[in-house]
Design goal:
Layout: H1 10-20, H2 23-34, E1 39-55, E2 62-77, E3 82-88, H3 92-105, H4 108-139
Antiparallel strand pairs: 1-2, 2-3
Helix pairs in contact: 1-3, 1-4, 2-3, 2-4
């Protein structure tokens, strides 16, 4: 069996960041960077359920963990670029904004500016939240030591 290492493309990276971004923050950063671009909603935003699958031990036989609510949306810019978004939960506005940001990021003329003004700040705040949660979890960590008796 070969080890499969996922190759993360830049679009996968920004989509993951957009999917976790709070709607208010994403909207504020997009307005600051782009103003209010014209776009058409092609599909959604609509909520539904997806089956979440896991693997025993991370690489064993797949099994169904359960269902999860997601919201999806697809938008098209006036330039013809299409953006998609799937986010966890039921937040139609957040899905629409993530799809809009995806479409804008696909424009080579906007990509660098949006990366600096939208994606990087969102990534930094998400990393800070992860570090804060990890710090809180580490503070409650208990280490158990097993003592072995010596027989003479």
């Amino acid at each position: 069996m070969t080890d499969r290492v996922p190759v993360e493309t830049s679009r996968q990276r920004w989509m993951a960041i957009l999917a976790r971004a709070p709607a208010e923050r994403l909207e504020a950063l997009l307005i600051e960077a782009e103003g209010a671009p014209e776009y058409t909603v092609l599909r959604g935003p609509e909520s539904g359920l997806v089956m979440v699958r896991g693997r025993a031990g991370g690489g064993g036989a797949p099994f169904n963990v359960g269902e999860m609510t997601v919201t999806r949306c697809t938008v098209r810019l006036d330039s013809g670029l299409v953006g998609h978004a799937y986010i966890a939960g039921r937040e139609p506005r957040r899905a629409e904004l993530a799809a809009l940001a995806d479409a804008l990021m696909q424009d080579p003329e906007r990509m660098e500016r949006l990366e600096a003004q939208v994606i990087t700040p969102l990534q930094a705040s998400q990393a800070a939240r992860r570090a804060e949660r990890a710090g809180k979890a580490a503070a409650t960590r208990v280490q158990f030591f097993a003592m072995q008796t010596m027989r003479t």
